[in-house]
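Deliverable D4.2, example record:
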Amino acid sequence: MDHYFNNKVNFNFEKNGGILKDINFIHKNKIIQPMSKAPWVGKNSKLLPKKLDLIERQLEGDFFCAPFGKSKKTPIHGWTANGLWGQKKEKRNDSKTKIGQYILREKNNKFNIIKRIILKNNHPTIYQEHIIDNLLLPIPIAHHSMIYAPGGARLTFSNKSYGVTPISPLEKNPKRGNSMLLYPQKFLNIKQVKNNKFKSIDLSQFPLNQIHEDIIILVEQNKDFILPSLGWSVAFCKKDNFIFFTVKDTLRLPETVLWMSNGGRNYKPWSKIHKNVLGIEEASTSCHENYKLSATFNKSKLNHPMGLYSSKNKTLKIKYCFGCIPAPSNWKYVKDLKFTKKNIIFVGNDNTKKIIPFYYSHFLQ
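Output generated by the structure prediction step:
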């Protein structure tokens, strides 16, 4: 396990499974811990089901999924989330920037992938890049960050075209769990999503006052290949005093998958105890067009990729970051995010602003 830290963030990188875990954000000597850790993590592993994949055994923080979701040929979320990452020589490690580089050592993986983790001093943000080659067939991919929001979260996003639910719920059998949304469906506003009783509900507020396990997919607007094409997600958690945010390259990650896990699974190890967890998962799948968390070579009607692959003699670079800052007491939600070459500007519902440093060129390289 490798430890990363600067004056704004510290965390551990678990090389066996590729998980960023034990994540602390630091503000004026106070620790903010927005990330989720499953209740069974660190407990007696002998009590867990034998067939449980590594990523579910140590479910927490953030990790990279390739392929995203279930697959017959790999563990859930791929070898990137279940295999061993070997460390490569760091390119730079000075007083202002720390970079860790890793290569996936799993022999059963069918493509080459390098992970880069980047910290910048004074940035309350963890920057990541994944470099892929020899991925000749398209697969669904995603970053899988998870926050714990027992006090509730108000969600806002970069402009979306629409949203969908997949072709079937996460829990089909009521004996195993409960999903509350209508599957599949297409909606134009996250505040008007149909539940399984055909009633419109507001999913910009999390959690809902119901035991459930559900997933929705939000689709970026087409930005006509402006570089960099930045999309973002924000969870404003006033009672828990934090703002969690993600920033992504929408040309590679045109979807935002929201996994709402609120005690909706009855079987081990979930056992109704995995609650108030929101996965904010920046992704590329075919779901926004065919309702399946799969992948194709085709572009969607919005000209978005539906899964990713690397053509011969070319590499694929996937840029992403996430971070956390305190929630201003006078705000009710974040209305907008704006970017300059040096900063992220958070705009509150009252139009006041909070500015933090931003590594804009990360998304240009």
